[in-house]
Amino acid sequence: MAYRKKTLRQLNPTARKLGKAIGELQSTTNKLKNIIEDVNLQEAEVLRLTKVVDYLTNDATVLLKAKAI
User: Fold this and answer.
1) What is the pLDDT of residues 17-44, one digit of tens each?
2) Alpha-carbon span 56 to 14, nearest angstrom
3) What is the CA radius of gyration of the chain?
4) Residue 51 and residue 43: Cα distance in Å, rounded?
5) Which terminus of the chain has fewer CB atoms gathered within 10 Å of its CB, N or C?
6) How far apart, in Å, are the Cα atoms of 4 and each of 16, 19, 23, 41?
């Protein structure tokens, strides 16, 4: 949770810097979690499309071989 400005003003300078650093760390952590979720969804989509392409490629190969016979 972010510290309020009023709270930060009441702290000594070292504690203020620490409070700001903690806030930045939490913000960065949340951003990374969101990015990781997006990457996982995209990776799953790529795997799904790869399977479709493999299936279609194999199917086309079988048809071409059948026509050649």
Assistant:
1) 888 899 899 999 999 999 999 999 999 9
2) 63
3) 27
4) 13
5) C
6) 11, 10, 10, 35
